[in-house]
TrEMBL record:
Belongs to the enoyl-CoA hydratase/isomerase family. This is Enoyl-CoA hydratase/carnithine racemase. It comes from the Archaea. It holds the Pfam family ECH_1. SUPFAM superfamilies: ClpP/crotonase.
Amino acid sequence: MIRTRADGDVRVVTIDRPKRKNALRPAELTALEAAVAEADEPVICLRGAGDAFCAGADFEVVTSLADPVAFAAHGQRTAAALAESEAVVVCGIDGPARGGGVELALAADVRVATPDATFAEPGVRFGLFGAWGGTIRLPRVMGAGEALDFALSGRVLDAEAALRTGLVSRIVDDPRAVADEIAHGKADALATVKHRLRDRRDADTQEAAEAEAFATLVEQYADRIAESRG
């Protein structure tokens, strides 16, 4: 199941199947996508219950799929919901992230790990690979060389290795504290910066969009100043 609760300016979303290492079935993918869509807080903190972040797709589901393409598309939509949300998504990895769990983390805006976090793409050892957008996002995050090594070897990265390769940006004791830190920013500015930094269009188009977004924020800032002065 997916648990969600509002806590100030942060929406805490928790994958809650600890007995299965938070492995995801279609029901959890649907619920996670809905939880992200329904959040109206400026920051989402994505966590896993128990001693794992997420083991990826539930293998009991994978081995009995009637339509693998539809299942892959389902996971891609859920990952896209994280990437495209107006909220800044902070993914706190505390314990193992495997396969689809890594792919969900890659779709987040900020990934932070606790010292207990580990990461792996073990699919190749079973004759599979992650198909929830990981082959697209992984080289963007880690660089092509590191991404190929990580995905083809199936090796496990600890938190320090994940930091070194760019898979996470910090090692922290409490990922929620990072979400709170980001939530101190103004919601409109956070959303604008997120979408500007994620823009993959050509440079000229991006620069024009950047200037327009800046102008909008300046206008909103001026309005707030005017309102505060009465």
